[in-house]
Amino acid sequence: MKRILLLLWLCALPACAQEHIDKLLLLMQKRLALAPTVAQVKWNNHLPIDDPVREEQILEKAPEAQRAFLRAQFEASKTIQQQCRQNWVSQHTSTFPTAPSLAEIRVQLDQVTGDMLQALEAARPELEQPELLQKALGKYPESDAWNRALEPLR
Fold first, then answer.
1. 76 near 32, Cβ under 8 Å?
2. How confident is the model at residue 71, as a pLDDT?
3. How far apart are CA 73 and CA 116, in angstroms?
4. CA 1: distance to chain centroid?
5. How many CB atoms within 10 Å of residue 138?
6. Which of 77, 74, 73, 85 is nearest to 42 (CA)?
7. Residue 17, CB half-sphere, CA atoms under 13 Å: how many?
C-alpha cells in the first residue's frame, strides 16, 4: 500500500510543479497587463515612467532572494509603458478620462505583486527544473517585455 501511495505521489509531482509555474507565469502576465493602465495614469499626471523611489520602497520590503526578480518585473513594465508613451506622443494623445488614480492603480499593482512573490516562492523548487519552465512558456507569446520579466527565472 505504501508503495502505491508513493508511486501516485511521485506521478503527481510534475502536475503540481507545472501548476506552481503556471500560476507564477499567469501572475507575471497579469502584472504586465496593468502596465498600459499605469502608463495612462502617469501620462495623465505628467509623471515620468521611472519611479526609483517607489521601486526602492517595494524592494526594501522584499527578501534579498526576490529582488532581482522584482527588478526584472519593473523593467518589463517600464518597457511596455515606454512603448505606450511613444505611441501617444506620435498620435498627439490627450488625457485618458477613464484611467484610475495613482493610488487606485498602486493598490492593484501591490496586490498582484504580493501574489506573484508568493507564487515565486511556491515555484522555486520546480524552477530548478528548466524543462518545466520551458514547457509552461510555450503558452505565452514572446515580447521584449516578457523576455525581460523572465530573465531571472532562466
1. yes
2. 98
3. 10
4. 42
5. 6
6. 85
7. 18
Count of CB atoms situated within 10 Å of the CB of 101: 11
pLDDT in tens, 46-79: 999 999 999 999 999 999 999 999 999 999 999 9
pLDDT digits (tens, 9 = 90+) for 15-40: 566 899 999 999 999 999 999 999 99
- Determine the Cα–Cα distance for residues 74 and 143; give it in Å rounded to an integer: 15
> SS3 helix, strand, coil % of the chain, rounded to 5?
80, 0, 20
Q: Are 124 and 12 in contact (CB under 8 A)?
A: no
Structural domains of the chain, ranges and CATH numbers in brackets: 15-153 (1.20.59.10)
- DSSP assignment string, 64-89: HHHHHHHHHHHHHHHHHHHHHHHHHH
| pTM for the full predicted model | 0.86
